[in-house]
Design brief:
Elements: H1 3-33, H2 46-73, E1 90-95, E2 100-106, E3 112-116, E4 119-125, H3 129-134, E5 142-147, E6 150-159
Length: 160
């Protein structure tokens, strides 16, 4: 798998998310400011609720813009076995049941699943529990991640 292609796919996905979020923010803003939604009494809260929604959507749009900036500046480096898994690594894992999983470790804001050919790739940051557990590991190492009450085990079978 090509890490630069994965990066481009992340950027496209984030751009689509930003577009949808900006459209939702605009619709909520229009609802909040529409003359028909002026409160007639203290129980008439449609305009107020839409204003809260517009504010939340605007914050989400700003978070996506920041993620886009981080991903545009990101330069995945080749794997260095001496340093172990670092930001930019494409990691192949096998879980305790023998199921394969592919993880691309990138900057914040890119948590998503992408289809690359016939393989599904989970994009995570180093702040995610699995991302933190993978940092510094090498091929053949095992990692454990606590998710709620469950403990998940993985073996690193490949790093690119």
């Amino acid at each position: 798998m090509d890490k630069l292609l994965l990066q481009q796919m992340v950027l496209e996905h984030l751009a689509q998310d930003l577009l949808h979020t900006e459209q939702a923010a605009q619709a909520a803003h229009e609802t909040a400011t529409h003359e028909e939604n002026i409160a007639e009494n203290k129980y008439d809260t449609l305009g107020l609720e839409a204003a809260y929604l517009a504010t939340g959507q605007a914050r989400r749009a700003e978070a996506i813009r920041q993620a886009l900036t981080h991903w545009r500046q990101f330069r995945p480096r080749p794997y260095d076995a001496g340093k172990g898994i670092q930001l930019g690594a494409l990691v192949s894992l096998v879980d305790a049941d023998g199921q394969p999983q592919h993880v691309f470790l990138g900057p914040e804001g890119g948590s998503m699943k992408l289809r690359c050919g016939d393989q599904l790739v989970q994009v995570i940051s180093s702040e995610a529990p699995l991302g933190r557990a993978l940092l510094g590991k090498c091929e053949g190492d095992e990692v454990a991640v606590q998710v709620g009450a469950s403990r998940l085990w993985f073996e690193v079978v490949g790093v690119g």
